[in-house]
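Reader question, answered in our methods column.
A reader sent in the components of a multi-part assembly and asked whether the whole thing could be modeled at once rather than chain by chain. We filled in our standard form and ran it. Here is what they sent:
COMPLEX SIZE: two components
ENTRIES:
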Amino acid sequence: MSILLNNSPILILALPLLAAFLIPLISRINKKTVGIFAVFVLLISLVLTILLAVKIISVGPQVYVFGAKSSSLTLPTGLKIPIRIMFQIDAMGIFMGLITAMVSFLGAVYSLAFIRKREGMDKFYSLLLLLTVGMFGMEFTGDLFNLFVFLEIASIASVALIAYRGTDFGEPAEAGFKYMIVSTISALFVLFAIGIFYGEYDLLNIAALANMIKYSQLDKIALALLLSVFAMKSGAVPMHMWTPDAYSEAPAPITMILVAASQASLYALFRIIFSLYNVHMNTLAVGWIIIIFGVLSMFIGVTMAIVQKDIKRLMAYHAVSQTGYMLLGVGVGLAVLSNPIALKDYGITAFEGGIFHIMNHAMYKGLLFLTAGALFFRTGTRNLNKMGGLAHSMKYTTIFFIVGAAAIAGLPPFNGFASKLLIYESVYKFNPLLSIIAMVVSILTLASFVKVFHSAFLGPKLPQFKDVQEVPRSMVFSMAILSCIIIVFGLFPDLIVKNLVHPAVMALVEQVKYTGTVLGGM
Amino acid sequence: MFGLLETGSGFWSAIIWVIVVLIIGSIVVYVRNKGEDSYKKDTEQVKPFISGHPEESKEGSHLSASHIYWGFTEALKGYYKPLIEMHTGNINDFSSWIITVTVIVLIIIGVS
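And here is the structure of the entire assembly that came back:
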């Protein structure tokens, strides 16, 4: 058991990676078992992630050095800098890892019934597992070049999954192509920034770089490139335009995982800003850049959502809007990072709100995309104008939608309310106008989901949907689990904030702990 | 206290909120169950009155998504027109936005 736990950082990735390449072989023997196999592997990853989370919360950050005599030997004998590839998983990394593990597992379970097309099933599950590997890798790595590699793995798998239905329809292929272009641009920018660091410091390890960084003009260029790219990959306005296409055309369970993948990019942004640059940079200026991204995303995202008729495009714009809350909370925390009084007074709370919202958003937006998938599965349309009265025949889906919609709109007692409350109250102390905008956006979010609820679920049973039934059990199972998480997180937010969110926030804020884990002195 | 979230300015307890909602809900249900004396079931009184016009079929009267918030979007036409035009769906425009924003961020970070 201890061997399993000690090697869990690599096993969490290695198992899905190995499974991804085994699936085409298994498919040759029995096509129907590939889905079950993927679910089983992702379940093991989930269990290992939970065990690792317990260890990190109770013991502290974990490092896993590849190729060393001991997996915790960060500095080779006689050297003062790390030269080996390593995973460095602190409370923030495992916080994101938990999201990835849960969302990937539930996405695979949902896919068992949702992906009925037998042709290409092996490719679908292989890509799903590779996407999961990419996300885990981005969240666990302590090395900038490996961050780039895992970003690429996630991006390439995402492109293929977005275009998965492309053989039957034109739009998914187009959406996949668009995502490929923006991913390529982002990859080039990231590679260029890494080149700057390597040329300047001969280092790629984030902790070692953080210890050496001088915040020169070159470092500023690298920061600007990384900030823009990861903001774009997380769907920040005005670089959000790929999200409606990608989120709406991908199969519903993949859309749910893509939301978590966007959040992995958000994590990369935070990791670069806090663990690499921290107070070396002008935190007020960079904080305000992130706040402006946040406000634009919140407002433009929600107002664009209101006018949508395609249920998944509408939800995609809401995903942009909700990312704005995360950026706002963390942006305010960053803006006051160099001011210990303000940081203690409201900065940490703003951080907590932003980081807690990442997990909440992954759960309720995942649930909402799954309900949209359930509607598409039974009605064959995403057009809200063509839907109506589905609450009569899809009772479970209706309940799950209500839970998800109430959570995203920030209605108590659901989880969205708890994180939004932390953001409202802390941001108000920084700048009341920002807090008011956030509240108005919540009201508009509620209005938008009232529209969806009325259009799709309320009204008389329409003749064209008289034979519609509830979705299969595997789809109901995934939605039910997410609903339960939303309710439990909403009822007991203090437990999540105290045990998961606060340690994650402190892991970001306290740069010395991050560097000390690798370079010693901790 | 269990379930108590400190917000920096106060606290939030979903448990207390649920208890309060249950109490208020119980009072509402109690008042409702006491009934309304003037209500007479299955009479003309309970039929909808649409200015004397006959009631449309239930299936034909479902309000579709495009009609909801029509007034809101119409009133904000000036805001929505450029915003929607900005979302061209053209990959060249996506790339332009990324480059433009990167340049702006570069200038801000460079001079700060």
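What stands out: The longest strand of chain A covers residues 62-65. Residues 282-491 of chain A form one domain.
Send us your own complexes using the same form.
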